[in-house]
Amino acid sequence: MAESDAMEEQCAGVDALIARAERDAVDLPEEPAAVSVELTEQERREVEEALGLVHGRDRQGRRPGHAA
């Protein structure tokens, strides 16, 4: 009993954060507005590099699910 109370206490902050996010999400539109952003070549390379770190790359150096 004390152990489950301790776990609930530890998770209380996260539970409150989730509840707040869910309340705030009610006001969000179903689909985010389309945003057009022009990246410089350097910015595009930096984004590709970051995505490669997150998603990995195949043997040809391409990100999975990304058109060449």
Task: Tell me what you see in this structure.
The protein is an all-alpha fold. It has two helices and no strands. It has helices at 2-25, 41-55. It is flat, with a radius of gyration of 21 Å. The model has no long low-confidence stretch (mean pLDDT 82).
Structural class: mainly alpha
Distance between the termini: 56 Å
**Rg, please?**
21 Å
Low-confidence spans: none
What's the number of extended β-strand segments? 0
Number of distinct helices: 2
Shape: flat
Q: What is the average of the pLDDT values?
A: 82
User: What proportion strand?
Assistant: under 5%
Order of helices and strands: HH
Sheet with the most strands, sense and barrel status: none
Helix content: 55-70%
Assembly type: single chain
Task: Please summarize what this structure is.
This protein has 68 residues and is mainly alpha-helical. The chain contains two helices and no strands. It has helices spanning 2-25, 41-55.
